[in-house]
Amino acid sequence: MTALRAIHTRLLEAFGPQSWWPADSAFEILVGAVLTQNAAWRNVEQAIARLRAADWLSAEAILAAPCDELKACIRPSGYYNVKAQRLRAACEAWVELGGEPGMRARSTAELRQALLAVKGLGPESVDDVLLYGFGRTVFVVDAYTRRILSRVGVLEERVGYDELQARFHASLPADAALFNEYHALIVQLGKDWCRPRGPRCAECPLRPDCAHGQGAGG
């Protein structure tokens, strides 16, 4: 699907390298992947800063933290009762899998399956960890990806996660750095230009090839 390559080229020319994911370790990326569910990243950053200030930015520390105090720490990310449970479950898996060294020693397929078995970790969250935390060649699919590609006319918005991911894998070289950069560029476009309501079509770098943008006028 050469259209996917062309989109990447246009976005890179428009926005330049994004240097994602903003984290200091694979574990911090796991924490961010849990907390960013249904949350703006700026709020997740506040929650992670609170965890760091409390010296709780490790699996063992989070598991040992008093539940109410942990919830207070991650409150800025929203849904803190549910996310506290999910964060603990992710930390338990982290420890059971041998921490970062044990996880790095596993194949991508084995590690993905193990993380998907954790309650509260869906494909997007798991692939965030695999790509950004461990440099594995898995493309992350999110709501931005679906919205942008359906508006451009590359695919139907209701294509399943695995099928959409497979299309990226079939269309692009198996390169974690490329997948990292492409997903970050998609997030940039979806967040500031191709928004659900009030998209900035007139300024969008994909407008020349976008049916939705051409129809928006302005």
Categorize the overall geometry. globular
**Which superfamily, in CATH terms, is the homologous superfamily of the largest domain?**
Hypothetical protein, domain 2
CATH topology value of the largest domain: Endonuclease III, domain 1
CATH architecture of the largest domain: Orthogonal Bundle
How many β-strand runs?
0
The gyration radius over C-alpha positions equals 18 Å
User: Any idea how many domains?
Assistant: 2
Question: Which class best fits the helix and strand makeup?
Answer: mainly alpha
Write up what this structure looks like.
With 218 residues, this protein is mostly helical. The protein folds into two domains: 94 residues, Helix-hairpin-Helix base-excision DNA repair enzymes (C-terminal) (Endonuclease Iii, domain 2, Orthogonal Bundle), CATH 1.10.1670.10; 109 residues, Hypothetical protein, domain 2 (Endonuclease III, domain 1, Orthogonal Bundle), CATH 1.10.340.30. The protein has 13 helices and no strands. Helix 2 packs across helix 3 and helix 2 packs antiparallel against helix 6. The two termini are 30 Å apart.
Topology, please?
Blueprint: H1 2-15, H2 26-35, H3 41-53, H4 59-64, H5 67-74, H6 80-96, H7 99-104, H8 108-116, H9 123-134, H10 143-152, H11 161-171, H12 176-192, H13 211-216
Helix pairs in contact: 1-12, 2-3, 2-6, 2-9, 5-6, 8-9, 10-12
